[in-house]
Write a structure and sequence with these properties.
Elements lengths: L10 H10 L6 H9 L20 E3 L2 E3 L2 H11 L6 E5 L5 H10 L4 E6 L2 H17 L2 H4 L6 E4 L12 E6 L8 H5 L2 E11 L2 E9 L2 E9 L30 H17 L57 H16 L10 H5 L5 H8 L4 H7 L6
Parallel strand pairs: 3-4, 3-6, 4-5, 6-7
Antiparallel strand pairs: 1-2, 7-8, 8-9
Helix pairs in contact: 2-4, 8-11
């Protein structure tokens, strides 16, 4: 399924085509699509096909067509803090885009039938966290994946605000899917050859809307097991109490992002020079920031005060002088124009990842800087 829009030369051009065809209609969805390069989820030998509006499969690895993913993202009506369940999470491409909208305090779970695909998804997720500047521009809800058949989720399992199923669902399993939803929740699934949006309006009431015709491989039915209990899939815990260390990391990164937000382009549309015939505006990948970023700056010195000597008098070490120099350098580079925005020259050329550079420049032990960067090395 796919081919609804023209192929692009890169990820941004693919998104332009999806916008022009009205598959992408909202700014949060557009920014999520621009933030993650679809080609990063392809095997290297197939990257040349990444910007075609076509599905791709290699062995157990599968990606739906971009026009399908964009319709799914729009139909889910994602908001920060919601819980999301991806049935057939595959490479993690969709779950990662969803995580950019859910934010730090959302819930992002996926269930996938094939263990090798989950291994592939975690590899891609790790690469995204370590190498993509988009990870630092958004408040990211990291997905968690489990191996299993989604039809073996326990009936009394937790319910979610948003659910997507990436395989064809027959009418017999519709009620099972509906029961995964909270009241007010939205389920998007291919139901009888139609991408369908189901909203749970009450305990026993539903609103159903057909979106577009689709063709998906059907759900794999659980295997019958003689003389044994049915297998049940345990999903990750819905809400876990965060450690004080995690909350401190979130707070520090938020403050640092506010501090360096003037160096990153703000989430606004900027007119660029396009090839002939391209008249619409687009915020490119490097111009789509998290909505929490703004032009209000805070001094990092409030987070990391100067060292206190034994006599309770403040003393300035070499590290403090270095840190003060970093702050002053950032102050010099932040040019505030009208309404607190940067000078126009800053918009045209986005520098390197300032959040990571700022963290690496802080006078902190290396293990702590590694932790603040979310790097996974032990």
């Amino acid at each position: 399924m796919g081919g609804a829009v023209s192929a692009g030369e890169d990820n941004d051009e693919l998104i332009d085509n999806l916008k022009e065809a009205q598959y992408i209609r909202s700014e949060p969805v557009e920014c999520a699509f621009r933030a993650i390069d679809r080609a990063d989820y392809y095997l290297d030998e197939f990257r040349d096909s990444a910007y075609k509006d076509l599905a791709w499969r290699h062995g157990n690895i599968h990606l739906s067509a971009p026009c399908i993913y964009s319709e799914v993202m729009e139909a889910l009506d994602l908001q920060p803090g919601l819980s999301f369940l991806n049935l057939g999470s595959g490479t993690g491409y969709l779950s990662t885009m969803v995580g950019l909208i859910l934010g730090y305090f959302g819930v992002n779970h996926g269930i996938e039938l094939h263990a090798d695909v989950i291994e592939y998804a975690y590899k891609k997720l790790d690469c995204f966290i370590k190498t993509s500047d988009s990870f630092d521009r958004f408040e990211f809800c990291e997905p968690s994946f489990v191996v299993g058949n989604c039809l073996e989720i326990a009936p009394e399992s937790q319910q979610y605000d948003r659910v997507y199923c990436g395989a064809g669902v027959q009418k017999d399993h519709e009620d099972f899917m509906k029961n995964l939803l909270k009241v007010g929740g939205i389920l998007v699934l291919p139901l009888e050859e139609k991408l369908t949006k189901i909203t749970r309006t009450g305990l026993n009431s539903w609103d159903t809307k057909k979106i577009i015709a689709v063709s998906f491989a059907p759900l794999v039915l659980p295997k019958n097991r003689e003389n044994s209990k049915p297998r049940t899939v345990t999903l990750p815990a819905m809400f876990e109490v965060r450690s004080l260390q995690d909350l401190a990391r979130i707070s520090i990164r938020r403050t640092l992002k506010i501090r360096v937000s003037g160096l990153w382009p703000l989430p606004q549309k900027v007119r660029e020079s396009y090839p002939r015939g391209r008249r619409h505006l687009r915020p490119r990948r490097d111009q789509c920031d998290s909505t929490i970023l703004n032009n209000h700056y805070m001094f990092m010195s409030r987070i990391f005060p100067s060292a206190i000597d034994d006599n309770n008098n403040q003393s300035e070490s070499d590290d403090d002088e270095h840190f003060r120099g970093v702050c002053e350098q950032l102050d010099d580079e932040i040019g505030e124009g009208e309404n607190g925005r940067r000078k126009e020259a800053r918009i045209k050329e986005a520098p390197l990842n300032f959040l990571r550079e700022s963290i690496l420049s802080l006078p902190l032990p290396e293990p702590l800087k590694t932790y603040l960067l979310y790097y996974r090395e032990k």
